[in-house]
Amino acid sequence: xxxxxxxxxxxxxxxxxxxxxxxxxxxxxxxxxxxxxxxxxxxxxxxxxxxxxxxxxxxxxxxxxxxxxxxxxxxxxxxxxxxxxxxxxxxxxxxxxxxxxxxxxxxxxxxxxxxxxxxxxxx
Length: 123
Hints:
This protein has strands spanning 4-7, 10-13, 18-24, 31-36, 43-48, 55-57, 65-70, 75-80, 89-95, 112-113, 117-122. It is an all-beta fold. The strands form two sheets. Strands 2, 4, 5, 6, 9, 10 and 11 form a seven-stranded mixed sheet that branches. A hairpin with a 6-residue loop joins strand 5 and strand 6 (55-57).
């Protein structure tokens, strides 16, 4: 089972930036970021292949968020730019157990999860 530990959350003003990190314990696999906004269900934000060359994003963050990874350090990142109050959520790092790329943000494809980090965007 992959151990995942997120960090980097906090409070930021609308229009600002924040970078989330997720340290993984095992060898690289397909990974993703999800979020749970207050009072809403979990939604996929972005996913990335093992090589880092392939990515997908949910429409609401395209052009603002960037998912990336450092396979030497085993760290997954989410660079959040031009944030809005609608980005307020608990953000979770998730990992598949395979290395084959599958462009999906369906949570059932990611069996391993971190504990989450809170992001609050103030207007």
